[in-house]
Structures are given as C-alpha cells and as structure tokens.
Amino acid sequence: MIINKCIWIKNNRLCRLFILFSFILFTLPGFGQKNTCHLQGTVQDKESKEVLEFTTVSLKNDTIQLNTVSDKTGRFSFRNIKPGTYTLSLSFIGYLPLHRTISIHRDTTLSFHMQIDTITLQDIIVTASESRGLTSSSKINREAMNLLQPSSFTDILSLLPGGMTKDPSLGSVNKIRLREVGVSSSDYDVTSLGVSFLIDGIPLSTDANMQQIPGTYQGEYDYNRNSIGKGVDTRTLSTDFIQSVEIIRGIPSVEYGELTSGLVKITRKAGVHPWEIRLKADAGSKLVYAGKGLATRNGWTINFGIDYMDSKIDPRNNLETFKRLTGSVRIGRTWNILTWNLNTDYGSSFDNAKNDPELSYKKIDKYKSTYNRVALANSLYWNFTNNRLLKSLSLSAAIDYSKDQIKRTKYISLDKDTPIPDNTEEGEHDGIFLPYRYTAHLKVDGQPLNAYSKAMGELGFNISGVENAMKIGAEWRMNKNLGKGQVYDLTRPLYPSMKARPRPYDDIPAEHTLAFFIEDRITVPVGTHNFQAAGGVRTLIPLNIDKEYKINGKTYFDPRVNLLWKFPTTYLFNRILNIQLAGGIGWNTKMPVMTQLYPDTRYVDLTQLNYYHTNEEYRRLNMMTYKVDITNFKLEPARNRKWEVRFDFDYSQNNFSMTYFREKMTSGFRTSSFWRTFDYKKYDASALDPGSIQTPPDINTLPYSTDTVIYTFGQTTNGSMIIKEGIEYQYTSKRIESIRTKITINGAWFKSTYHNSHPVYRNESTLINGAQIKYVALYPDDDGYIKQQFNTNFAFDTYIRPLGLSFATFVQCLWISSQQSKWKSGTPLKYVGIDGIEHDFTADNLSDPVLQYLVKQYNKELFIKRTDPISISVHFKATKKFMRDKINLSLFVNNILDYNPDYKENNFSVRHYVTPYFGMELNLNL
Q1: Tens digit of pLDDT for each residue in 52-81?
Q2: Which part of the chain is the TonB-dependent receptor plug domain (predicted)?
Q3: How far apart are the C-alpha atoms of 588 and 256, rounded to whole Å?
Q4: How many other C-beta atoms can be found within 10 angstroms of the C-beta atom of residue 219?
C-alpha cells in the first residue's frame, strides 16, 4: 500500500506542490528512484572564501539539462541523476564562468572556487545589484562602496531603486526609509523603526534607548537629535568595516523578526587582506580608517580596524560638531565541520553644540551628547555536509552595553514672576518662585543593555524528486536600561513649563521576547522549468509583561510565503536568455520600544494661591498637583502586511528587473490624545492688607471657590495607518567595450499614504470674555498626507584598465514630486465638558454660542495637490589607481550641474538653490 501511495504522489503534481506547506519535520528521505545518484556541491569565492549565494548551476548532457541555484550557504544539489558523463556549468555576476566535465557513477560531493573577473568586476560597482532570489533585495559590494566614497551608511541608500544622492547631513538623526517618499511627522517613524539591522548575523537593537530631554520643541538642540522610536541612527555606522550589504525590501525569511519595513544584512570583512588606510576630506567632514586581516599558521584569522570621523554641521561654524569613533576585532577559525567566530566592537559618537559666548548673556549655553557602546558576539556553525537529514546547526549569542549621556546647560532669563512646583507627590502643597536669572543644568543618564541568543538547525531531504531545505529555530531578546535617567534640580528646571519629574530608568522592567520559526524551501523541477517556494511562520511571544497589558500572554504569528518560477534557459539570436517570475506575501511584527510601553508620568500643577509680596518672607504659592499615568495598556505591536510581484530577465549580460509592491500597516505607533478633568481651589486673597500682614497668608482662613479644568494628554497608540505602493525597476547593460562604459538605469514610482486611523481629542483654544472654552472635542481626522515620487537615475560607469582609471557620471531625474493633504471635515463627532460627560455633536450645536467654536474651518487650498516641476542633477565620481592598486586616489562632486526651474505656488515664486558638494579621499593597500 505504501508503494502505491508513493506512485500516486509521484504522478500527482498538485500533491507535490502541497508538500511545501506541510512542514513535515520527521519525514524519512529515501523515496528516490533506484539506480540513480546524488550530486551536491558548494560554491565559494576563490580569494575570500565567501559563499556565493544564488549561483546559477546547470548540469547537462545530450539527453537532459537540469538547472538550480545555490542556497545561502553556497550549496547546490541534484538528485535522481542517471550515471554518466555530464557538463557542469556555474555562473555568477562578476565572476568568470566555470565549466567542468564530470563522470557520475555514485553519490558525489564537489567543491568549487570561482575567480573574480577583473573586467566584469567593474560591472557591479556603480549601483546595487538586484537579487535573482525569492524576494526583492539589493546587494552592495565593497567595490560599489569604494566608488561611492561614503561617510556613513546613509550614503549607501542612494544606490537602491528610488534612491537619491544627498549631501551628508550629520547634524540630526539619519533615519532609513525603504520604499516610501517619507514625511517629517514623528507619528510615522515606525517605518524607520521597523527596519532591522543585522551585523554579522547579530541584530542591532535600539529598543532600550531613552535619551531625551523633556519639554524640547522643534528648533531646540535635542529635537532633531532624539532617535527614540526612530530605529538605528545610521550616522553611527561606519562603512569601512563592511564587505557587503544586502537590503531586503521584500518579504524576508521567517528566520528574521522584529521588523515591519525591511532588513539590512551587513557582512563585515573577513579573511586575509593587507593594511587598508583611508583618508577622506570633504566640505563638512574629515575621516580616517585603518584596518587589516591576517591569518596564523594554525588556522586562526584575525580582522581588526579603527575608524574616526569629525564633522562640522556647518563648515563656517566651529561650535556645532558631530564626531564618531568605531573599532572592531574579529577572530575566527574552522575545524573540519565547525566554524567559530568571536567579535568585539566599540562604537562612540559625540554630538556637541554650544552658543557663541559673544552672543550669550553672561553664560554659555551648551549641549553635549555622548554615546559609547561595547559589544561582544559569539557564534558557532556546524556544517554537516555528508548527513542525509541535518545539514547545519548554528548557535549565536551576543550582549552589548552602552553608556549614553546628554548634558545640557541653559541660561534662563525671565521677565515675570514664575511659579513652579518642587514636589513629586500628588495633592496640595506649597510651591516656589523662580529667580529672574539662573543657570539650569540637566543630565540624562542612559545605560541600555541588550542581550540576544539564537539557535537554528537546517534540514535537507528529498521526497519524490522534490528538494526540501528546512529551517527550524528559536530566538530570545532582552532589553534593559540601567541608567539613572533625567537628573536635574527641580528648583532650577531647564524649562519653567516642564510637566515631568525625574525618573530613574533602572526602575523600568526589562523587555523580553521569545520567538520560534519554521520554514520549508522546496525546489521542484517541472520539465525544463524550475519552481522554488519558501513558506513558513514565525511566532512572537512578549515576556515579563504586567497582567494589565493587553499583550500579556499573547502570541503573534507572522506567516510568509515566497514563490519563484524560473523558465528554462533559451537562446535568442545565439545569446542566452533567462526569464523568471517571483512573488510573495507576508506579515511582519515589531514590538513597541520601552519608552512607548513605559512612558514618563505627566504632572498637572494648578495654582490655587499666588500671593506676591515685596517682602519675600510674606509670599506664598499654593498648588494642587495631579499625577497622570499616560501608559496605554492596550498598546500592541505594529503589524505590516506586504506583498509583491517581480519580473526578471537576463539577456546576453543585460539584466532587467521590475517589481510591483504594496504594503499596508494600520497599527503603527503614534501619539494620540485622551482627556481628563481636574478640580482645584481658587483662594481669594484680595481682602489681605499687604502693609499689615506679618506672616504668609494662611489658606485655612482664606475664602475660596472651586473650579474645574479639562486637559488632553498624549499617549502612544496603534493609530498610524501607512500604505506604501510602488514600482521599482533596474536595467544594467553589458559593458560597451568600444567605449568601456556600462549603463545602469534604475528608479521607482512611490505612492505613500499617511493617515491617523483613530479619531483624536483636541482642546479648543478660543477665548470668550477672556476665558478659554472648557470643552474638548473628538475629531474624525487629525492629519493625513498622500505623497508621490517618480525618479530615474542614469549611471554611466567607465573603466579604463590600462590606465587604472574608473569614473562614473550619475544623472538623477526627479520627474514627479507631489504632496496632497487628506481632507479633514473639521466637524467633531463628540464633545465633552468639565462635567466629564461625552455628548454627540449634532446640527443643533452649530448655532450654540459656545459649541459652534468647536467646528474647525479649513481653507480648501490646503487640500489641493501640489506638484513640483522636474528636477535634474548631475554627480561625478572618479578613482585613479597607482602602483598596482596599492594607492587609490578618488574624488567626487555632487550637483556639478543641475536643472531646477522656478515655479509659482499660492502666488509666490519658489526657487531651489543647489550648491555643489565635493570631496577627495586616498586609499592605501600596504
């Protein structure tokens, strides 16, 4: 009966495809045909020994032709091969094709080392190369970064489809945005927070970052430097240690979590390489790097390096700077099937600003932010090449500790008597009056501690000719802040209107998450076609969460599926043509950061008596203080659903790729509002005679009346809706040998919709008879934007090998750039007064002498779509090699030419000014 069942499975193709999603862990292999052989092998770079993923491998003779691609470990496999003589061919972009004639009479394992093609190597240095795998991603190698001459990781993003070259901006947080136009509102920072960074397989966590100054506003030092809830500040990442970067924009494997927008996989330099020294200078910064890779006689490899950058935010201003220092030591060794790696890293940044003493009154305002991080990562990898079921096992663990400090000094000058509280408890109490002149000092002490561990096994087996590659694993993360938080003198606040009190960060519980994942990837030959699919599910379990939180005890599931259909290789006009279709759908989940789960308590201080006397001993200030907990116990992780369809073709070394994608997130993090009423007393001291009193007023003897106010407070909710839609494309030509030039054309059309998915409460500021209206209204619309962008980048890469000269010209065309605010009605849904009762807002309220002011009036021109005219800019980069590539001299000029016409907007003339930005660097390989 078993034999009949196997025959039925073999002949029923639908059943074979169904096996992808069955995820059978303990299925025994061995259903292959008799008298057949199994051929498997690995593909590596000949020099660096780096595995080559997605290498095209073909096996053919006079009767059959089989095709496959290598997996992430560089392995490929052919099963059920009849004994005989075959031609095995391997091809990979940037490498010399490799052909071998082999005789197969039994199960065979081979190893191949491919040689870099020094001519075609230059075919991939200008832009990111698009993946031909299951999901959309871009790979950027070392050669591309060398020509780009980056100062930080932000510069690399210009190589992505839809990316644009921008001058360095190191005076504020550099956020990463994938597949979107972007909006300046912090309510949509979840898109950058949802990009996960992996450095040599270890995630870079910012969830325990709590460095902020309370009460800051736009224009203040801390506002644009605050990276809480924004993800990784890419200014802190040096590119000099990087060997390659893969940026996954599509649906990643379920192996990766804690993300919504995408994944950045950074692989750093490994193996032997000479001393590398890099010196760079441009209009705003100076950079120096030195690094080396060496090997010992007993098989150990050691890589180390140090990088330092000094940037002036404005070259004309020496008072505002950003500095970065990073260092790394990486040790590794391989014993037979076991590979061990140990990485130690140090990173620091210094973000300083101070006012010109000649423009300050008596004192100097200062701002200094320091960041020091130490990390240790350890990984073990077993490669079981000859095991029929278990192919590999990996274990990794990492811990990192940061010492972050913000120091702020501010000279305060007041023009009136300003009362403030000096207590931390709720209730009635006496306050104090601030002096007219004082210096405020504040320190924010943060000490994030992050720990990580992961275990994963990879299985491989064959069922009736269907190759299965399965991943099973678990992952644990911990985030904790050991800092003392905001430390300052309550009687000398940085801002007289501060609504917070100091709170130690180490009082906040540690954040723990546990994740499990399982995925099966199958390869099915369908005649001369090749079908690949990967499907899996990842679970996220929050731990160490109080029972009051909605996420306590919940499990979140992220299913993801990717499919690829590769058509057989054909010949058109005697040239090779490859065509494939790919697509996928998946859900991605990101936990809230610690400041969103555990926000600071808000304080409401209401003045009940403010009796001012010329004699300080007779003054009295009495206040009523309320503590407001703004914690949102209903807060849940942000979830993003994304799907995409991609078409690729390669013809005679001309490559083209086009992807349509759509993403929808309705639970992004944002600050929403809620209301609360407060009662307090208003003491009447008008009857007191200032000339006869001998003591401060006694509130127990003063007459008073009661009053009630209503306020709104910000609270983190899942209220941001973000819809991203677009088309990405990239064309890479074969190098035109007559002019030694290669043409790359890439770009994207992005449409990004941002909206508040929850109604919001807002106070009404209208004054009637000198008093503010005591109503709060609930509005269906708060904000919303529709942004579109369509751009095309033309890159012309010329490489003259005899002269050791390479240069590239980039022409960037922004065809469409538009923005439109979404319609807002302005009519509230409900309103609430100081009685605390919500009422529906009806048509009758429009004629009410007070409630009519709750209706907002908007100018219709606010919602008109605004479109900027075409913008074109030209950038130039060049490198000259000396002494057999030991010395490289490079230069770049951004905006060497531009076309930005003036245009009219709301009867005003708009003019864009573009200034060239240039720099040079020297690279030594000793």
Answers
A1: 877 888 888 877 778 787 877 788 888 888
A2: 135-260
A3: 9
A4: 7
The DSSP element (H or E) to which 190 belongs, if any, is helix 190-193
- Structure tokens given for 817: 């750039």
**Which residues are 599's β-sheet partners?**
none
Q: How would you class 369 by CB atoms within 10 Å of its CB: exposed for 0-12, middle for 13-18, buried for 19 or more?
A: buried
Grouping H, G, I as helix, E, B as strand and the rest as coil, residue 275 is strand
Tell how strand 903-905 and strand 908-910 pair up: antiparallel
For tokens 């279709």, the residue is 581
Phi, psi (degrees; rounded to nearest 5) at 717: -135, 175
- Identify the helix (H) or strand (E) that includes residue 192: helix 190-193
Q: Which residue has the tokens 């009685």?
A: 835
- The end-to-end CA distance of the chain, in Å, is 69
The number of beta carbons lying within 10 Å of the beta carbon of residue 857 is 5
Buried b (16+ CB within 10 A) or exposed e, 402-421: bbbbbebbbbbeeeeeebbb
* pTM for this entry: 0.84
Using CA atoms, how far apart are residues 244 and 188, in angstroms rounded to an integer?
Answer: 29
Find, among 852, 786, 856, 846, the residue nearest to 825 by Cα.
856
Distance between CA atoms of residues 610 and 683, nearest Å: 9
545 Cβ contact list (under 8 Å, min separation 6): 551, 552
Based on its alpha-carbon atoms, the radius of gyration of the chain, rounded to whole angstroms, reads 32
β-bridge partners, 377? 343, 398
Let me know: does 705 contact 681? Beta carbons within 8 Å.
yes
- What are the two backbone dihedrals, phi and then psi, of residue 618, each rounded to the nearest 5 degrees? -100, 0
Tokens encoding 302: 């050691």
- Residue in the block written with tokens 């609930």: 778
d(CA 342, CA 503) in angstroms, rounded, equals 37
What is the pLDDT, as a whole number, of residue 33? 37
Distance CA 33, CA 19 (A): 18
**Could you report the per-residue pLDDT of 878-923, keeping only the tens digit for each?**
999 888 778 999 999 999 999 988 887 777 788 777 889 889 999 9
Residues 6+ apart with CB under 8 A from 553: none
- What type of residue is 617? E
* Residue 228 one-letter amino acid: I
pLDDT at position 23 is 33
Distance (Å, whole) CA 532 – CA 888:
43
Note the residue count of the chain: 926
Q: What is the DSSP letter of 51?
A: B
E-strand spans in 698-783?
704-732, 741-756, 760-763, 767-768, 771-772, 776-779
Full set of structural domains in the chain with CATH? 32-117 (2.60.40.10), 129-925 (2.40.170.20)
